[in-house]
Design goal:
mainly beta, five-stranded mixed β-sheet, four-stranded antiparallel β-sheet, 3 helices
């Protein structure tokens, strides 16, 4: 069977919404980030130009309210008909004309008048949709249904259009300590909602990040899946000393995936309280840092796979799984591919949860910190190979000159370091990948025609140091302090590439190519005299794949610190090489770079209206005007 014939079959038998227009956050419920129809190819990609720019309504509020710090614009729109629907950093929702970029309506819940969402502050990634409704989860813990036509709350949903997510949670929590900054997902007539419960609490006790299913028509709560089990639940035995009674977090803060045919939803879960010290929660801690498959109608667990036992590295699963139909060893397989901060792709049968290729439990270094008992082994996929660096040694350090290697060695020797899963220490441990990955919430993109997965990743070492807190402010034995670790004179500590895209054939589990993303710090004074290839920037990258091409864009240079006045980080960004990169998806050859007004803050999306294809990039935020930028090949008579 030819590739073309196979793709036709995929389209004929795919569930509704799969491989069509951009109907959900990841293009479809499978998170392919794939645009099936393409008017843009190798021959005309150089003609891409900005068709329209949409200014976020956050910008005018930011001008009038300078005390509000609005983070990077991470909102990726979805398409219904000829309208886009997008969430903004201030958790507003807007409808935008998909042809012209004109604003049709804005719904403003005005949460900024009541508080600041914890940990990451004013950011949001997107919305979900069902029939004529836009579904939005906010950072103060409400699920709201809005009319697509008007933006007005739908009266018959919940109470005056909203459901209070704090109702029925297992432990009390303040309003702005429980919410969401990622979209929910609709499976059949159920909307499945995660939450962002921070995992760096000062106290042992915290709210668990349970996942819940609501009736998409009425807002009625249908089921709750306890991510931290209770007495009698499966998995409770993995929380020793009854630590399940008080441990918190273990949430799904990122987006999810669903198989509409199977009626299943797939949860990528996060670390329990706290990120880097697990002495108060002995055991493997199910269902933390796991892929959990649920029956979307009932909330019953179908299967699970834990990617990190007793996590102390903040290796929560950062992106929704990607679902694919491939051929392995001559047999058709329904698979799930989960990218991770560790730079692994865990490839599982999405029906049974069984690994497609062996995943081996291997011994890992053990903690010597008081009260900590790390897991003796961790799961290592045998295929695909890691897509970024894992662990660090002197051989990995920057080596453009003997002097740079010597200075980098001195920096590294100030800390503890070693292979993947070297545990945090009181001296400070260098983690590679760091807490932002490897892979990040940007996830990857899948070409369903070939079964190739495209994964952007970064090489960003981070130091995690365990410190004893003031007993008057915390009942933890240890908390963590974290910092990114730079090399000599601000250069990266390690050898390049610092940002990359890796193409992986999910039929074979093999890498097909890898290329740096971005030119990298080649103009640094200590490198300027060298003739260097592209090095890649250590910044999060976002990818989109079409029939013919692969598109990518990167964040700028992140800046910011924890706020002195709120409970959130204030992450901004310095503009750095803001372009839309166009690659040959088969070879990785860079074909074109199209200038953007600012760096990307969130994932790209694409759609076709009539015969015109648009590619939309969310840019700015964090001190730079937040915009949607739509690019297309301008045709005579188009706007």
């Amino acid at each position: 069977m030819s590739k073309c014939q196979r793709f036709v079959l995929l389209l004929l038998f795919a569930p509704a919404g799969v491989y069509g227009q951009w109907n959900s956050y990841g293009a479809d419920s499978r998170n392919t980030k794939y645009a099936a129809t393409s008017g843009i190819d190798k021959d005309n990609a150089t003609e891409l130009a900005i068709a329209w720019r949409w200014s976020s309504p956050d910008n005018s509020i930011a001008r009038d309210r300078p005390e509000l710090f609005i983070g990077l614009f991470k909102g990726t729109p979805i398409l219904r008909g000829d309208a886009l629907y997008v969430a903004t950093g201030l958790h507003q929702v807007a409808s935008v004309d998909a042809r012209t970029g004109a604003t049709r309506w804005v719904h403003d819940p005005e949460i900024y008048d009541r508080g600041t969402p914890q940990r990451l502050g004013f950011i949001h990634r997107g919305v979900a949709a069902w029939r004529d409704r836009v579904l939005h989860v906010t950072g103060e813990g409400y699920l709201t249904a809005l009319s697509m036509e008007t933006g007005v709350p739908v009266d018959e949903f919940g109470e005056e259009g909203s459901v209070d997510l704090l109702e029925g949670i297992r432990r009390p929590v303040d309003r702005f300590e429980f919410g969401a900054n990622s979209p929910a997902i609709v499976v059949g007539d159920v909307i499945v909602v995660g939450s962002f419960v921070q995992d760096g609490w000062l106290d042992k006790e915290g709210p668990p990040g349970d996942v819940r299913g609501y009736d998409v028509r009425s807002g009625e709560l249908l089921w709750t899946f306890r991510t931290i089990p209770e007495a009698g639940d499966a998995g409770v035995e993995t929380w020793l000393d009854d630590s399940w009674r008080y441990s918190g977090s273990t949430n799904v803060w990122t987006y999810m995936a669903a198989d509409d045919e199977l009626g299943t939803v797939y949860l990528p879960t996060s670390t329990p309280t706290n990120d880097h010290y697990g002495g108060h929660r002995p055991g493997d801690n199910l269902f933390a840092e796991s892929i959990v498959c649920l029956d979307a109608e009932t909330g019953e667990r179908v299967w699970h796979f834990q990617t990190t036992h007793h996590g102390v590295w903040d290796y929560d699963l950062p992106a929704g799984p990607i679902l694919a139909d491939v051929t392995v060893d001559g047999e058709p397989r329904k698979i799930l591919a989960q990218v991770s901060k560790q730079a692994f792709v865990y490839v599982l049968d999405r029906v049974t949860g069984e690994p497609i290729w062996p995943i081996e439990e291997r011994p890992v270094p053990q903690s010597k910190v008081k009260g900590e008992k790390t897991a003796a082994t961790q799961p290592f996929p045998t295929k695909p190979p890691p897509f970024d660096r894992q662990g660090v040694s002197v051989d990995d350090l920057i080596d453009f000159s003997p002097e740079l290697r010597e200075e980098a060695t001195a920096i590294l020797n100030e800390y503890d370091f070693g292979g993947l899963y070297t545990p945090p220490t009181e001296r400070g441990t260098v983690l590679v990948p760091g807490v932002v990955g490897g892979a990040s919430w940007a996830g990857g993109a899948l070409d369903p025609e070939t079964g190739w997965l495209y994964v952007p990743s970064v090489t960003t070492p981070i130091v995690v140091q365990l410190v004893a807190p003031d007993p008057m402010s915390s009942d933890m034995r240890f908390m963590s302090q974290r910092q990114f670790l730079s090399g000599p004179d601000g250069l990266p500590l390690l050898r390049p590439p610092y940002g990359r895209i890796t193409a992986i054939d999910l039929n074979t589990g093999e890498h097909t190519w890898m290329v740096p993303l971005g030119s990298g710090p080649r103009d640094h004074p200590r490198l300027a005299d060298l003739e260097l290839p592209r090095l890649g920037w250590p910044s999060r990258g976002f990818v989109l794949v079409t029939d013919t091409l692969l598109f990518a864009a990167q964040e700028g240079e992140l800046t910011g610190n924890y706020s002195s006045t709120t409970n959130a980080f204030e992450f901004g960004g310095k503009t750095r090489e803001p372009v839309l990169s166009v690659f040959d998806k088969t070879t990785g050859e860079l074909l074109e770079e199209i200038p953007l007004p600012a760096n990307a803050g969130g994932s790209l999306m694409s759609y076709t209206l009539g015969s015109q294809q648009f590619i939309v990039v969310p840019v700015g935020g964090g001190g730079v005007p937040a915009e949607l930028v739509a690019l297309s090949i301008q045709k005579e008579g188009s706007h």
